[in-house]
Every structure is written in structure tokens, then in C-alpha cells.
Amino acid sequence: MKGLLVAATLFAGMTVTLRAQDVTKVSPSEYKVEFENDQIRIIRVKRAPHSKVPMHSHPDHVVMALTPLEQKVTMPECKITEAHRKAGEAFFSKGLTHAEESLSDKPVGVVLVELKTPAKQ
Fold first, then answer.
1. From CA 24, how far away is CA 119, in angstroms rounded?
2. 84 with 69: CB under 8 angstroms?
3. Interatomic CA distance for residues 73 and 67, integer angstroms
4. Which end of the chain is more exposed for a tag (fewer CB within 10 A), N or C?
5. Residue 30 contacts by C-beta under 8 Å, 6 or more apart in sequence?
6. Torsions phi, psi of 15, nearest 5?
7. In sequence order, which residues have a C-beta less than 8 Å from that of residue 90 and are 6 or more positions away?
């Protein structure tokens, strides 16, 4: 029983750590903070063809695709989807934890605006 409690505690700690991963820390060569204040953080994304970004988290955010965006998205529960966006397309996303893999043969450019206060419904 004690071993089960220890394992459950370790798993819970890993889950918190997983959700707390900042994309600029897990992939600093591709994600650069351009501006930050108490309300938003703007991140410029320059991804190499077929690059992979490990599991990380974002709060509520707005994405502006500067180039076509073709990627595989893996959620923590292993659900896999694909995202396809046109250059110039902007969209809002609730906070999430995921990993990404570029499916593009060309470099990808994105501007990401993370909201420090959750969006109102």
C-alpha cells in the first residue's frame, strides 16, 4: 500500500511538472519572447522543417500563422490530431498542453500571443 501511495505521489508530481513546461524553455531555439508585460506575452516562432517540440503548455492564446502551418499535435492523453492553417490566418485557443511536430518541408513562422488573464467567456 505504501508503494502505491509513493507511486501515485510521483505520478501527480510528474503531471504538474508536465503541465508547467514553458515552450520557450523546452524549445528555446525556435520560440523567442519578443514582448512581455503583466497582461500578455508575445512569442515569435521560427520552426525548421519537420521539427518536433516536446510536451509543453500554453495559457489561453491567439495564434497568427505567418506561413502555412501543417503540424501533428499530440495531447497528454496521447490523442493525436493534425492542424492545417493558411498564411495570415489567426485563431484563438483555450489553454492547453501538447507536443507538436511540423509536417512541412519548409520553415514555419508564427506569432503567438499568450494571455496572462484567462479570456472571458
1. 22
2. yes
3. 17
4. C
5. 45, 46, 47, 48, 51, 53
6. -65, -45
7. 62, 63, 64, 65
Residue found by looking up cell 523546452 in the block = 26
Q: Quick check: helix, strand or coil at residue 7? A: helix
Owner of C-alpha cell 490530431: 81
Q: What is the DSSP string of 16-52?
A: HHHHT-BHHHHSTTTEEEEEE-SSEEEEEEEEPTT-E
Domains of the chain: 2-115 (2.60.120.10)
DSSP 8-state assignment for residue 87? T
